[in-house]
C-alpha cells in the first residue's frame, strides 16, 4: 500500500531494498544453522559480520587513521600560532604564522568533510542492517511454532514489536561508536606522548587522573548494558500488556475494568521506570565525570608543572588544553559511550538470535530467498502441487500430540492421543464432540501447527483453512477474500453467493471494496465468519478444513451456507467440518466423534445415530422425507449458484484511513505540556538557573585561566629581560626583578597562589552545579515521561470505540513502544544537550568578543547563517520524522496482524512469500523516508561546519589584521581554542536541536492520544440522582433489572475530522420494554443489528433516544457505573496472558472459594483442578491454550461471579457443543433466575422457553412476543404435518390459552418482514421445528401456570 504522504518521496534505492538484504542475511544465517548439524553453535553476529564486516571495517579504519592525523596536527599548528603572538616571540616569520593559521582552518575543514561522509556511510550501513534483521525476524515469525510455549506464544506480539522497534534501532548508534573501541585508545596514546613533549612528566599526572576514571566509567558502561537488558524485558512485558488491553478494549469497557487495567499497566510501567531511572542516573554520573574530569586533570598538570619550577606559557597551556579537549571528547566521553552502545547492540543481537532459534513448524515453504523470486515459495523437497489423485489424502496413525512441553503441562493428558483417521478424496467428514475435546487441535495437526509426540501423520494434498475465530486484516472485503490470489471474477462471484454474502455486500456503501478494519471490527460476527469462509473456499485446494464456520450465523443462514457451500460449491472436494450443529452430521460420509483428545467413534450417521449421545435426539421418522426435500433444495441452490451475474463487483479502490500527520513546527503548547508534566513553571525556572549558573562558572574557568597565563607570560618576559648570564661561570646575576603581584598585567595584584585557589574554587563550583542540574533535570524529565504515559493510557482507554475501529492495534502500539521509548531514553538526553549547547555557544561568542571586539560583526553574521540553516533544515527534517513514524506504524501493524492470524496465513502456504514481500515493501517505505533524512542531516551538518570554519578563519586571521601591542598569546589561544570547539559543537548542537524538535514530535503524538475525546459522562451525576431519583439506593442499583428502550438509534461513528458519508445507522427507532426478571432472546438474520442492540445498551457507540435500567439513564449513572452494574458476555471471549484467577477477577474482589464455585456452575471445575497450578495456571495470549468453548465458559464464569441483576449474552454459547449449551442454559435459568437476561442466540432451541423473543431485521424490531405466540401461523407445509408429529393438540388449545394469557405478541405491518421468527424455525428442518414448537408450547403453558400460582 502506497499512501499519499509517501508519494512525494522517491522510490527506495535498489541497493537499499529490504528483501535484497534480508536474502543475504538469511543465506548467511542458514549457513550458521548448518553448524548445529555438526554440534556447533550458530552465531547471528557472525552472520552479520560475514556480510557487512569487511567493508565496514575497511572504511572505518581508513577514516579513523586520516581523521586522527588531522586532529593531532591541529594543536601543533595552534602552538606555532600562539608562539607568534607571545611576548617570548622567538623570531617566527609572518609566512610561518600564516601557514600555521591556514593549517588550523584547512585541517578543520578537511576533517569536517571526512566526518560527514563517514557518518553518512555508517548510518546507511546501520539502516540496511536494521531492515535486513527486521526482514529476517518477520520471515521467522511466519514459521514460528506457536505450540512450543514460552516466548513463542505468550507475549509474542510485544516481543515482536520490541524486536522491530527498539532492538534493531540500536544498530544505528553502534555503527557510529564501534570503531572508537579501537581508535580511541591508540589516538589517546599518541596525544599523551605529544603532551609529554610539551610539559614533561606533569602530563602523566593529569592523564593518570583521567585514566583512573576510565575503568570506573567502563564499569558503569557494563552496568548500563545489564540495566538495558533488564529494561528491555520489562518493556516487552508492558507492551504485551498494552497489546492485550487494545485487543480486548471492548470487553474492558463493558466490564468497566479500565481502572483495574490501569493499575496493572501502572505496575508494569513502575517496574520499567525503576530500571530507566537507575540507568538515567548512571548516565548523568558518566556525563558529569566526563565534563569536569578534564578540568581537574588540567589543573593537576599545571600545578605540577609549576611545582617543578617550570615557566608556563600560553602556547604550552592552550596546546595542552587542546589535547585535553581531545581526550575528553574521545577517551572520557566517547569511549565509555562506545562500550555501552556496543554492549547494548550485542544484547539486541543476542535477543534476535534467541528469537531466530525458536522452534519452527514443519512447513515446506522456502522463505530464505524472496527478492526477485515470483515463485510460490514451495521447497523442492516435498512438492504440494497437484498430482495424480491419491487414495488417501490425510492419514493419522497412532498420532499423539501436546500443545506445550513446559513444566506446567508435564504429566497432563495430551491434546490428542492415539488418533487413527483416514481422509479420502471427495468426502465430507464431520467432527463433533464436547468443548475442549480436541476438535480444533485435530485441524491444527493437519496444518502442521502441532508437531506429534509420537505416531505418524501424512498430508498428501493442499489444504485451505477457515478458523473458528475469524481472522480478517485491515483491507477491503475483496482483498480479504482473494488473499493475494489472482482475481477470478467468475469464481469470486460464486464464492460470494454460496457464502451468503450477496445481501451484505449490496448493503455496504462501497460494496466488496468496503474496508473491514482490523480483525473485521466494522462487521458483525456472522459477517466476519462468512468472509473468513469465503477466503477459505476461494482458494483452490484439495482439502478444506472448516472449524465451526456455522456457529456465528443464524439457523437460516447456516442451513443455506451448508447446502450452497459445503454440499454445493465444495461437493467435488474433500471437506473436514468441525461443528456443534449435529443436524448437519446426517449428510457426512464419515462422522468422527472426539472426547478427551481421543476418537471414540467413527462411521456414517446411520451407524452412529443410536450409539452417540449427540445424535440420539435426531428423529428417524421424517429422515427420508427431509432428505428428499433437502436434495430438492440443493438442486435449486446449485442452479441459483450458477447464476453469478446478480452480484455487481465493485472495482473502485478502497479509501484507506491513513494515520493523521501534523504539519509545520511543533507547537509551543507541546513544549509547555511536556514541561508542565515534569514539574511546572517552578521546575523550569530552577532548571534554567542551574544551567545558566553552571555555564557561567564553566566559562569563568577559561577566562580566569587565560588571565592567569597572560600574567605568567608577562612575568616571564620581564624577568627574562632583567636577567643577565655570565659567560665565565654560567651563574645568574640578578638585576632588578619585578614581583609577581606588581606586574602591570596583574590587574588585581594578587599572588600566584590566589590565582590557583580561585581556579580550583571555580572548578569545584562547576562540579557541584553540573551534578545538581543533571540530576534535577533528568528527574524532571522522568516525571514527565511517567505522566505522559499515564495520560496517553487514560486517553486511549477512555476513547470511544470509533477510535479503535479506525486505528489498527499496530498504530496504537507504535505510540506506546517507539514514541514512549524516544521520550524515556532519548529526549531528556537531547534536551540537556540542546540547553548546554545554546549556553555554550553564547558563552563562546561572548568570550571571543571579549578578546577582540571586532569579532562582533562576523559573530552576528555567523549566528544569522546558523539560524537560517537550522530553519531550512527543520522544515524538511520535521516532516520526514513524522513520515518515518507513520511508515513504522504500517510495518508494525502488518507484523501484529500477522501474529493474530498465523494459522490462517500459514494454511495458504503459497502466500507466505507474498506476505514477506509485502512486509519488506512497507519497510522500503520507511527506508525511503529515513535515507532522505540521513542525507539531509549530513548536508545540514556539513554546511554548519563550513560556516563554523569560516568563523574560525575570521577569528584566526583577525589577529593578523587587527594586531596591537596588547595582543597576547593567552588571548589568541583562548579565542582560537574556543572557535575550534565551536566548529564541532555547532554542527552537533544544531543537529541536536533539530533532533530534539523531531523527538518532540513523539511528545506531540503522545499528547494527541492523551487528548482524545473521552466518553462522557464517566462518573455519576449526583445532583440529578438526588433531584430525579429520590429514595433510590444507588449503591444497590439496579435491584429489579427493568430495561426500557425508547426510540433508540445507534450510529457507528467516524473520527471527528472525517467527513461522514452515507448512513451509518445500525439500529433504527428501536423501542421495547423488558420487565424485571424477564428472560428475553434477540434473534434475527446475520447483520440484523442484534449485537448493535447490546452496543447501544452498554453505550459503546453514539445513540439517540433513551435507554433506562430501573428508570436510570447512563447519563445520570455515569458510564463506568452503568456498565459495571450490568454484565455481558460478548461474541469474542477476551482472555489475557495471566493466571486463571487474574482472568476471572482482575479487580481482586472475590475469594478462591467463590471462584471455584463459579467454575463449578459453568462445568469448568474439572478442567481447573486438573491443571498443575490450579487457579495460578497461566492462560496464553488470548486464551490460546484453551479451546474456543472453554474460553467462552471462562467468560461465563465471570458472570457467575458478578451475579448482576441484568445479564446480557451475545451468542455466548455459539462455540460450545449442544450438551454443554444445555448445561449453560440450565445454569442461567437456575443461578440467574431472578436476573433479567437478554440473550442473542442463533441456536433457537436455547431460547424457545424464554419469556419473550425480540426479532430484529435491518436494525429494527419487527416481531416481539413469546416464541409460542410468534409461531401461530403454520410453520410446515400443512397442519397435517404437525399432527403427524404429535403436536396437533397445540392448535386445539390455542384459542383457550390465548384467552387466558392474552396476546402479547407484536408484529410489523410490513409483509416483507412478517413471520421472520417463524421462517427461522422452519429453516431448521421439519424435525427440529417440531421439537422447537413443543418446547415453545410447554414454556407457554408453564408461564400461564406460574402466573396463576
UniProtKB/TrEMBL annotation:
Localisation: Membrane
Pfam families: ABC_membrane, ABC_tran
Alphabetized GO MF terms: ABC-type transporter activity; ATP binding; ATP hydrolysis activity
Lineage top rank: taxon: Eukaryota
Keyword Acyltransferase among UniProt keywords: no
Domain named ABC transporter: residues: 394-621, 1043-1283
SMART domains: AAA
Protein known as: Multidrug resistance-associated protein lethal(2)03659
Keyword check for Transmembrane helix: yes
Record's keyword terms, sorted: ATP-binding, Membrane, Nucleotide-binding, Repeat, Transmembrane, Transmembrane helix, Transport
Membrane topology: Multi-pass membrane protein
Disordered: annotated segments: 617-662
Annotated TM spans: 57-85, 97-121, 202-221, 296-321, 754-778, 827-847, 940-962, 968-990
Biased composition (Basic and acidic residues): 622-635
Domain spans labelled ABC transmembrane type-1: 63-343, 685-998
Amino acid at each position: 500500500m502506497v499512501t499519499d504522504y509517501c508519494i512525494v518521496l522517491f522510490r527506495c534505492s535498489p541497493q537499499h531494498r529490504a528483501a535484497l538484504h534480508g536474502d543475504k542475511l538469511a543465506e548467511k544465517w542458514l549457513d550458521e544453522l548448518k553448524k548445529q548439524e555438526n554440534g556447533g553453535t550458530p552465531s547471528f553476529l557472525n552472520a552479520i559480520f560475514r556480510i557487512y564486516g569487511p567493508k565496514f571495517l575497511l572504511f572505518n579504519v581508513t577514516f579513523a587513521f586520516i581523521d586522527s592525523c588531522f586532529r593531532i596536527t591541529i594543536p601543533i599548528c595552534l602552538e606555532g600560532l600562539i608562539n607568534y603572538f607571545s611576548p617570548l616571540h622567538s623570531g617566527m616569520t609572518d609566512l610561518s604564522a600564516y601557514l600555521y593559521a591556514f593549517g588550523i582552518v584547512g585541517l578543520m575543514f578537511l576533517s569536517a568533510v571526512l566526518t560527514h561522509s563517514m557518518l553518512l556511510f555508517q548510518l546507511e550501513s546501520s539502516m540496511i542492517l536494521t531492515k535486513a534483521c527486521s526482514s529476517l525476524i518477520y520471515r521467522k515469525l511466519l514459521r514460528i511454532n506457536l505450540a512450543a510455549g514460552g516466548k513463542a506464544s505468550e507475549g509474542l506480539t510485544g516481543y515482536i514489536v520490541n524486536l522491530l522497534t527498539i532492538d534493531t534501532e540500536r544498530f544505528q548508534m553502534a555503527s557510529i561508536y564501534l570503531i572508537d573501541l579501537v581508535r580511541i585508545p591508540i589516538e589517546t596514546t599518541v596525544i599523551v606522548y605529544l603532551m609529554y613533549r610539551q610539559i614533561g612528566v606533569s602530563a602523566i599526572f593529569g592523564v593518570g587522573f583521567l585514566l583512573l576514571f576510565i575503568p570506573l566509567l567502563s564499569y558503569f558502561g557494563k552496568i548500563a548494558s545489564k540495566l538495558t537488558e533488564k529494561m528491555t524485558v520489562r518493556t516487552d512485558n508492558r507492551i504485551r500488556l498494552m497489546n492485550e488491553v487494545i485487543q480486548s478494549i471492548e470487553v474492558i469497557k463493558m466490564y468497566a475494568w479500565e481502572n483495574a487495567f490501569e493499575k496493572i499497566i501502572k505496575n508494569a510501567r513502575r517496574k520499567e521506570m525503576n530500571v530507566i531511572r537507575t540507568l538515567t542516573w548512571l548516565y548523568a554520573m558518566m556525563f558529569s565525570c566526563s565534563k569536569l574530569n578534564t578540568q581537574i586533570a588540567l589543573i593537576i598538570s599545571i600545578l605540577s608543572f609549576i611545582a617543578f619550577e617550570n615557566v608556563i606559557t600560553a602556547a604550552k597551556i592552550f596546546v595542552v588544553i587542546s589535547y585535553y579537549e581531545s581526550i575528553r571528547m574521545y577517551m572520557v566521553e566517547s569511549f565509555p559511550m562506545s562500550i555501552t552502545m556496543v554492549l547494548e547492540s550485542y544484547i539486541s543481537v543476542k535477543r534476535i538470535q534467541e528469537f531466530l532459534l525458536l522452534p519452527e513448524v514443519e512447513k515446506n515453504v522456502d522463505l530464505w530467498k524472496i527478492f526477485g523470486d515470483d515463485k510460490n515459495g514451495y521447497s523442492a523437497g516435498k512438492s504440494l502441487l497437484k498430482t495424480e489423485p491419491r487414495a488417501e489424502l490425510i492419514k493419522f496413525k497412532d498420532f499423539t500430540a501436546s500443545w506445550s512441553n513446559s513444566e506446567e503441562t508435564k504429566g497432563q493428558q495430551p491434546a490428542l492421543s492415539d488418533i487413527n483417521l483416514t481422509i479420502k478424496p471427495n468426502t465430507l467428514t464431520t467432527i463433533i464432540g464436547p468443548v475442549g475435546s480436541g476438535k480444533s487441535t485435530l485441524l491444527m495437526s493437519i496444518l502442521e501447527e502441532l508437531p506429534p509426540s509420537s505416531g505418524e501423520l501424512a498430508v498428501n494434498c493442499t489444504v485451505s483453512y477457515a478458523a473458528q475465530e475469524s481472522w480478517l486484516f485491515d483491507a477491503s472485503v475483496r482483498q480479504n477474500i482473494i488473499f493475494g490470489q489472482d482475481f477470478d471474477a467468475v469464481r469470486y462471484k460464486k464464492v460470494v453467493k454460496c457464502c451468503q454474502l450477496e445481501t451484505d455486500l449490496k448493503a455496504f456503501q462501497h460494496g466488496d471494496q468496503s474496508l473491514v478494519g482490523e480483525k473485521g471490527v466494522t462487521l458483525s460476527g456472522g459477517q466476519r465468519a462468512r468472509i473468513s469462509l469465503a477466503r477459505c473456499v476461494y482458494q483452490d485446494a484439495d482439502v478444506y478444513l472448516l472449524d465451526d464456520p456455522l456457529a456465528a450465523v443464524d439457523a437460516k443462514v447456516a442451513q443455506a451456507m451448508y447446502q450452497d457451500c459445503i454440499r454445493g460449491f465444495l461437493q467435488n472436494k474433500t471437506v473436514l467440518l468441525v461443528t456443534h450443529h449435529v443436524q448437519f452430521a446426517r449428510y457426512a460420509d464419515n462422522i468422527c466423534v472426539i472426547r478427551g483428545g481421543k476418537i471414540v467413534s467413527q462411521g456414517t450417521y446411520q451407524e452412529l445415530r443410536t450409539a452417540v449421545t449427540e445424535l440420539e435426539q435426531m428423529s428417524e421418522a421424517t429422515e427420508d422425507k427431509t432428505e428428499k426435500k433437502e436434495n430438492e433444495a440443493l438442486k435449486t441452490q446449485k442452479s441459483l449458484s450458477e447464476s453469478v451475474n446478480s452480484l455487481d463487483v465493485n472495482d473502485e479502490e478502497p479509501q484507506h484511513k491513513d494515520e493523521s500527520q501534523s504539519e509545520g513546527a511543533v507547537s509551543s503548547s507541546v513544549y509547555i505540556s511536556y514541561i508542565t508534566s515534569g514539574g511546572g513553571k517552578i521546575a523550569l525556572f530552577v532548571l534554567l538557573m542551574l544551567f545558566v549558573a553552571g555555564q557561567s562558572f564553566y566559562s569563568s574557568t577559561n577566562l580566569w585561566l587565560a588571565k592567569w597565563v597572560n600574567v605568567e607570560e608577562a612575568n616571564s618576559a620581564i624577568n627574562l629581560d632583567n636577567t643577565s648570564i655570565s659567560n665565565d661561570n654560567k651563574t645568574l646575576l640578578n638585576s632588578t626583578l619585578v614581583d609577581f603581584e606588581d606586574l602591570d598585567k596583574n590587574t588585581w595584584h594578587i599572588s600566584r597562589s590566589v590565582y590557583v585557589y580561585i581556579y580550583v574554587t571555580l572548578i569545584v563550583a562547576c562540579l557541584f552545579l553540573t551534578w545538581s542540574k543533571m540530576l534535577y533535570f533528568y528527574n524532571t524529565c522522568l516525571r514527565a515521561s511517567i505522566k505522559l504515559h499515564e495520560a496517553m493510557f487514560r486517553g486511549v482507554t477512555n476513547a470511544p470505540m470509533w477510535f479503535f475501529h479506525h486505528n489498527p492495534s499496530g498504530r496504537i502500539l507504535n505510540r506506546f513502544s517507539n514514541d514512549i521509548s524516544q521520550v524515556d531514553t532519548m529526549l531528556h538526553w537531547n534536551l540537556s544537550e540542546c540547553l548546554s549547547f545554546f549556553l555554550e555557544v553564547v558563552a563562546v561568542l561572548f568570550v571571543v568578543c571579549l578578546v577582540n571586539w571586532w569579532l562582533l560583526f562576523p559573530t552576528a553574521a555567523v549566528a544569522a547563517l546558523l539560524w537560517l540553516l537550522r530553519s531550512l533544515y527543520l522544515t524538511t527534517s520535521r516532516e520526514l520524522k513524522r513520515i518515518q513514524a507513520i511508515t513504522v506504524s504500517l510495518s508494525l501493524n502488518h507484523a501484529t496482524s500477522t501474529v493474530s492470524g498465523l494459522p490462517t496465513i500459514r494454511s495458504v502456504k503459497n502466500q507466505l512469500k507474498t506476505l514477506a514481500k509485502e512486509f519488506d515493501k512497507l519497510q522500503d517505505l520507511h527506508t525511503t523516508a529515513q535515507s532522505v533524512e540521513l542525507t539531509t542531516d549530513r548536508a545540514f551538518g556539513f554546511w554548519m561546519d563550513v560556516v563554523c570554519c569560516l568563523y574560525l578563519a575570521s577569528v584566526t586571521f583577525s589577529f593578523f589584521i587587527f594586531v596591537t601591542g596588547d595582543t597576547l598569546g593567552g588571548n589568541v589561544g583562548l579565542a582560537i581554542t574556543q572557535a575550534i570547539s565551536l566548529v564541532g559543537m555547532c554542527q552537533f548542537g544544531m543537529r541536536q536541536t533539530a533532533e530534539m524538535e523531531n523527538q518532540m514530535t513523539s511528545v506531540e503524538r503522545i499528547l494527541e492520544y492523551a487528548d482524545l475525546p473521552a466518553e462522557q459522562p464517566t462518573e455519576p451525576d449526583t445532583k440529578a440522582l438526588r433531584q430525579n431519583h429520590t429514595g433510590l439506593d444507588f449503591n444497590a442499583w439496579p435491584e429489579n433489572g427493568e430495561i426500557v428502550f425508547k426510540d433508540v438509534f445507534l450510529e457507528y461513528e467516524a473520527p471527528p475530522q472525517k467527513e461522514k458519508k452515507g448512513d451509518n445507522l445500525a439500529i433504527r427507532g428501536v423501542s421495547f420494554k423488558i420487565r424485571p426478571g424477564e428472560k428475553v432472546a434477540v434473534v434475527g438474520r446475520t447483520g440484523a443489528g442484534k449485537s448493535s442492540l447490546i452496543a447501544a445498551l452498554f453505550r459503546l457507540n453514539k445513540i439517540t433516544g433513551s435507554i433506562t435500567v430501573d428508570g436510570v439513564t447512563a447519563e445520570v449513572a455515569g458510564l463506568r457505573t452503568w456498565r459495571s452494574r450490568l454484565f455481558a458476555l460478548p461474541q469474542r471471549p477476551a482472555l489475557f496472558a495471566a493466571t486463571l484467577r487474574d482472568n476471572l477477577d482482575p479487580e481482586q474482589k472475590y475469594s478462591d472459594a467463590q471462584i471455584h464455585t463459579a467454575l463449578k456452575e459453568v462445568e469448568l471445575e474439572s478442567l481447573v483442578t486438573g491443571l498443575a497450578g490450579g487457579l495460578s495456571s497461566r492462560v496464553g495470549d488470548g486464551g490460546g491454550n484453551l479451546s474456543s468453548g472453554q474460553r467462552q465458559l471462562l467468560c461465563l464464569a465471570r458472570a457467575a461471579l458478578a451475579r448482576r441483576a441484568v445479564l446480557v449474552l451475545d451468542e455466548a454459547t455459539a462455540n460450545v457443543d449442544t450438551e454443554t449449551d444445555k448445561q449453560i442454559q440450565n445454569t442461567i435459568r437456575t443461578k440467574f433466575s431472578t436476573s433479567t437476561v437478554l440473550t442473542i442466540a442463533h441456536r433457537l432451541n436455547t431460547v424457545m422457553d424464554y419469556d419473550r423473543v425480540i426479532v430484529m431485521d435491518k436494525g429494527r424490531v419487527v416481531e416481539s412476543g413469546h416464541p409460542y405466540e410468534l409461531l401461530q401461523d403454520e410453520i410446515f407445509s400443512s397442519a397435517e404435518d404437525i399432527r403427524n408429529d404429535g403436536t396437533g393438540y397445540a392448535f386445539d388449545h390455542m384459542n383457550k390459552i390465548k384467552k387466558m394469557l392474552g396476546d402479547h405478541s407484536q408484529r410489523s405491518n410490513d409483509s416483507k418482514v412478517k413471520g421472520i421468527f417463524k421462517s427461522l424455525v422452519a429453516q431448521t428442518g421439519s424435525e427440529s421445528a417440531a421439537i422447537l414448537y413443543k418446547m415453545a408450547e410447554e414454556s407457554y403453558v408453564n408461564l400461564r401456570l406460574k402466573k396463576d400460582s
